[in-house]
Design goal:
α2 (61-67) packs across α3 (96-112). The chain has one domain (14-22, 29-243): 3-Layer(aba) Sandwich (Rossmann fold). A 9-stranded mixed sheet has the order 4-1-5-6-13-12-11-8-9, with helices on both faces. A two-stranded antiparallel sheet has the order 2-3. The protein is built from 7 helices and 13 strands. Helices cover 28% and strands 26% of the residues. It has helices at 38-46, 61-67, 96-112, 121-129, 138-141, 166-171, 228-243, and strands at residues 14-18, 20-26, 29-35, 50-54, 70-73, 116-119, 134-135, 155-161, 174-179, 184-185, 193-197, 203-208, 213-216. The protein is an alpha/beta fold. The radius of gyration is 18 Å and the shape is globular.
Length: 245
């Protein structure tokens, strides 16, 4: 029987991207919307994957993870400090619905053996989900604004990566970065290894040995000419889907 030319290539991995639930204005409408910076989508496509947005409106975490081959925990608001036993700093802003959704998705992804890439907030979600804590405002705790120099302005830096780590095997011994975060890892979650550091010692990358669970504090999606992290996620998703068949 001849194949249907319109049938999708089922070997192409579907990558789930967590998304925002925010007030937005477009066309004639001003309403709450599910949205995400397009750069994430473009990077997944450039890396050879099929992007699917996952809105923070469902508790069916295992079912959702069964429909995708890999997961990107995207950037966004701060993690609710109560999740790591602290009161909120005045500069902390949260989205509890995203926390509930993404903590559930992360746990479901690990149960299903699906690769996970955390970006900025995503690294913090991974670490807090594993019992870690956060420094809530770097200008006070580290005395620096280089990670978020001004409103809507990315800080530029260089991150040193640990020899033998997964992230170093993807990016080499160091990488140029675009950062936009006022919080950072304080105590890493259980099992995570620090594998990337900014010049001031801030942890900029961490991973779980033996599985593709990798978080970076910078914003790799902002450089659509370098999609190596997304390519690595796509490749790991292909391998994981083979193993789960």
């Amino acid at each position: 029987m001849a194949s249907n030319a319109s049938e999708p290539d089922r070997s192409t991995p579907v990558i789930g991207l967590t998304s925002y639930l925010e007030p937005a204005k477009f066309g004639v409408w001003e309403t709450e919307a599910v949205l995400l910076h397009r750069f994430y989508v473009d990077c997944v496509v450039a890396a050879g994957g099929i992007p699917v947005l996952l809105p923070p409106v469902s508790g069916a975490h295992d079912r959702l993870m069964s429909t995708v081959d890999g997961l990107v925990l995207t950037g966004g608001a701060d993690v609710e400090p109560a999740r790591y036993g602290q009161e909120p700093h005045p500069a902390t802003y949260t989205r509890p619905e995203r926390d509930a959704f993404e903590f559930g998705l992360f746990a479901a992804a690990r149960r299903a053996g699906k690769p996970v890439l955390g970006v900025c907030r995503g690294l913090q979600v991974i670490s807090v989900a594993l019992g870690g804590t956060l420094a809530q405002h770097l200008p006070e705790t580290a005395g620096t604004t280089e990670h978020q120099p001004a409103r809507a302005t990315f800080g530029r830096g260089t991150v040193t990566l640990a020899e033998g780590s997964r992230v170093a095997s993807i990016l080499g011994p160091e990488t140029k970065t675009l950062c936009y975060h006022h919080q950072a890892i304080d105590r890493l979650g259980s099992g995570l290894e620090p594998v990337g550091w900014a010049a001031d010692g801030t942890i900029e990358a961490a991973e779980l040995p033996g599985e593709f669970t990798l978080g970076v504090q910078w914003h790799p999606e902002q450089d659509t000419d370098d999609v190596r992290l997304f390519e690595a996620l796509v490749e790991a998703s292909v391998e994981a889907s083979k193993e789960n068949r």
